[in-house]
Predict the structure.
Amino acid sequence: MNKPSPLVLAFIALQDALSGTYAALSRPKLRLMVKLADGPVSVSDLAEKLHISSPAVSQMIDKLSHEGYVRREGFGEDLRVVRIALTPDGQKALDDGLEAFEERVAELMVTLSGDEAHQLADLINRMLAR
């Protein structure tokens, strides 16, 4: 096997540096709940946005529902179609988690100037806009 490129290793190291818990939320739960911030979303849409399987999303939703952070809502006349929404407690947990995540990102960015931080954000956004 070929050795991974320095860029690949840097992205893996960045993921490692950002793993952990943010307020009451693990990073995977935080990622899922961010996708709910603009309103209810179906399980299949969440799976697509998160690039994970629907069963994996369902397991996370079960845990978040048990914790009181999300609820399942019927959608339209087809009772099989369910959307996932944040509860008020979930919105609070998300707000707290994002604040803690932002603090962690700030810790990682401390060695960059303001201009470098903006350049990095621009480059990442350009990569993701493809």
User: Anything to note?
Assistant: The chain has one domain: 22-128. The CA atoms of residues 20 and 26 lie 6 Å apart. The two ends are 29 Å apart (CA to CA).
